[in-house]
Amino acid sequence: MDRREALRGLAAFVAGSPLLKGQRDPFRPHPRVPGIAEMTTTFDFEAVAFEKLDRATYNYTAHGTAGEWTVKRNRDVFGWVDLIPGPEAEVVDTATEVLGTEMQFPLMVAPTAAHLALHPKGEHAMYAGATAAERTPMILSHVTTTPFAEVAANEGGPLWVQLYPREELEANRPRLDQAQQAGAQAVVVTVDQQAPYFERMLHDRHLSNASPRRRRPSQKPNPYRMNQGRLWYEWKLLDELHKMIHTPMLVKGVLTAEDAQRSIDHGADGIVVSNHGGRALDYSPSTLEVLPEIAETVAGRVPIIVDGGFRRGADVLKGLALGASAVCLGRVPRWGLAAYGADGVEKVLRIVQAELRLAMAEVGCPDLASIKPSTVRTDFP
Questions:
Q1: What CA–CA distance (Å, rounded) separates 218 from 322?
Q2: How far apart are CA 370 and CA 324, in angstroms?
Q3: Which are the contacts of 68, defined by CB distance < 8 A and separation ≥ 6?
Q4: What are the sequence ranges of the domains in the chain?
Q5: pTM exceeding 0.85
Q6: 43-55 pLDDT, tens per residue?
Q7: 276 part of the active site
């Protein structure tokens, strides 16, 4: 062995030593998750939620039906509504009451499913965060991962419940009875149709941690690929459900003045103008576009709640000016929950609350009663 071979052998021995750190993969990711105190807008929370969640879980919150045109339109519409400046209000009062539920702000947490996928404390954390943010009312989803009675046992803020009706009428009674006995202050009956598929979820089937969506055995195939779970809805359903509901009953999924009127005719105590966050029918109108005609038809007979793309306090002000009594936030508190748990939910809501106060002050509205259609100027296409 000559000197060169000896040095080469020694180098190979040293390079193969497990004690030599230089042999380890030099790539060391150091993604910095910002602290909750650094969050300034609701949009900041989505980025943190995206980093913390697996892709399929994030997409479940983000997706809409088909090409997601309506999801985009729900956001675009706020650019078509201008706020009209006025003499600045020195003091702003945002307190209100909707169907017997007292609210410090005209804001509610919309019913959304499966919170345990976002945070280990699931609906408990969402409810705790909403309560901490000036007792913001929460509507617990029918597709909750925590039973209503367990969530209600926390003795937090106002709690409503949402219902997807079942075709066999008596099958609805146990859920309604349990929720009302546990303290549900209102029942929100969803009546919009169910999307047949979500393109993002179809792609997610190829991710290793995504569970495939399978057709329910009880459903007969049809040539339109429609999910038949809600195709049987008829107006008489509201008449029958009303007999089981001893609290205010709201109808969610209304997008036309005609349907708002018929909902009232069939016993609705309130209307929720909603396109299911763009998850029901693609190319349906945004909720803000149809809100004025619905408000004109309702004419103050029942309160109107609206959801769909609301992210900022100024967005909420626009919804109130066009006829809503309150606004539901859906994706926004989910971002907060996934990012920081109950503290994230509280922070998200407090950001929107503060922005609403500021926007009201800037347009000269000292209270909710002073918000009028003239507070905004619309330019809908």
A1: 43
A2: 13
A3: 199, 200, 278, 282
A4: 44-212+242-373
A5: yes
A6: 999 999 999 999 8
A7: yes
